[in-house]
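Before our next group meeting I need something from you. Please put the record directly below this note.
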Amino acid sequence: MRQTEYLTEDELNRLMDEAEHTGMSSPQYLAEEIIAKCSDRTHSAGQKLFAYSAKVVFAMAASLAFLVIAAVPQKESQLQTEQLQQERMQWIAQAEEEKRVYMEKIQSEEEKKTLFGQMNEKLESFYGIVNDRASSIIFKEGK
């Protein structure tokens, strides 16, 4: 690998002294070239206005193209949204129908409770009370 050799401090000082005393100047043709290029770059007000107008027209055309391109997929997504809404409405209607059927079933079961069903409930509660009393009596005698 090649290492860059730097000037020593003495060599650097000698180079700076030489540049200061001899006076380094640029070539004569360089100044003429720079002036010529600068004079070519000056534009009139009409040219600047035309360039600005062209940029604005291009930007407007690009934005319009973007709007047209962006609007096309939007129609497809709108159709998909409408389909999803229809599916949701069907699901909701189906759920409401299932709920209605379930509620009717519960109501019919409650209406089916006849005199015998009510008697059965009362006997079960009476049996529970008797069982509790008997248990408490048996446990008291066992102590």
